Structure formats: structure tokens, C-alpha cells
Amino acid sequence: MRWAELTWPEFEKADKAVAVLPVGVVEAHGPHLPLGTDALMAIYVAERAAEEAGALLLPPIWYGTTYVLDRFPGTISISAETLYRLYRDVFAEVARNGVKNLVVVNGHGGNIDALRMAAKDVARSADMTIVVVNWWIDLAKEARRRVLETPEGHAAEDETSEVIAAYPHLVKAVPRDADEWVEMRYAVYGRRAYEAMYAKAVQGYPSRASREKGEEILRAAVEELKSLILDLKAGRLPLERRT
């Protein structure tokens, strides 16, 4: 059920056990992937899992914060403070509407701190459990280990494969010189460092991408997210007991 497409009487009667919120960013992803890659992939995984599990699907939050790639044309970055306030207010409103569990499907690393802060603040006062899933980290770990030949990165083999599988019409031919991997030995901040690390808005080896790899990763990701949603609907938290 798509939250934004329901009438208010329909929403009043809807199952509010779990709602799913995809979030991302608009930023450069190499010369071959769309600017909305992080949001698009979060939407793809969230939509399919929510549909299969019968959960409410919130409209996505497309915007996020990025301080490394904002020099590339088309990138839109909002401040971390604005992002935190946006997440906090949306989470609080979801809780006010009677949702018991909110699953946030995040597609961008720069959003993580703001998501965590907002989730902690809202969970302190609202009767709602918030689960933040950084999907490219938390989901399909085994599938990634099986199919990927090179390290995960930015607009790399993993991301390029996933977008080819989900939105093939949005992927341009990978240039021959697109592969690039540059790291700093220490935590270095500043424009010179960002320009050196992301000369092409790529960190990784997109030349090794394939649709088949992306399809296997996405199948596993959707299934794992679906299982999480069903567990929450049944009152089970995603606990791991260690012995």
C-alpha cells in the first residue's frame, strides 16, 4: 500500500504495523550512472519488499547530504542539520499516525549520522520502533560475497550491477577509463583530498559489472528486507543471540 495514494478513510483502516521509508541523495555517480542512484536503489528494494510483505510504503526522501561530490554538476546536498530535522519530523509524524514499526531503507552513507540521531530522538518519546537499514551494507551480504570480483565502492562493480538490473534504461556505457580506486592513508578532509579521491565520481571497478550480478544481489536484498518486515509485523525484533 502506497501511503500517498490512499484516501484518509482508507488510511484510517489500513494495517499500520509496519511502514517503509526509502531515503537517498542526488549526487554524481560516475559518468555512467544516474544522479539519483542512491535514492533509486533504496526505492527499488523498499517497494518490492513492502509490496510482498503487505506494508505501508511512504513517499521517498530524495535529498541527503554529501560534502565530497558536491563539485560535480547536478549534485544536490542539504545540510546535515536540515536533514536531521527533516528525518526527525517525518518520523514523528509517522508515529503520530499510529504506525508501530518504521523501517527506513537508506541508500547513502552521508545520511547515516542524521538518521541515527533522528531515530534516537523520536524513539525516546514515541511509541514506535525505528529500524534503520543501510541496504548496501546490511542486506545481501552473502550474495555480494558470491558474485562480486572487486571491492564495493561508489559507482563501482556493485552499484553499477544493481542499477543495470533495476533500471537498465538509465545506465550509460561504462567508459574504458572509468575504473578508479584512490584512498587516503589517514582521515583527510578538504577540497584537494576529495578531488584527488573522486576525480571521476567513481571509487571502484564498474567495468566488472553485470546485470546477472545485480539481479542476484537484489533478489537477496528484497527477500531479507521482506523477512524483516514480516518479523516486525509478527512482533519479533531483529535479534541475534550469541553464545
From TrEMBL:
Single GO MF descriptor: hydrolase activity, acting on carbon-nitrogen (but not peptide) bonds, in linear amides
One biological process term in Gene Ontology: riboflavin biosynthetic process
Names of the cofactor(s): Zn(2+)
Keyword Thylakoid found: no
Pfam family, any one: Creatininase
The keyword Zinc is assigned to this record: yes
UniProt keyword annotations, A-Z: Hydrolase, Metal-binding, Zinc
Coiled coil, from the record: none
Highest rank taxon of the organism: Archaea
Protein name, entry field: Creatininase
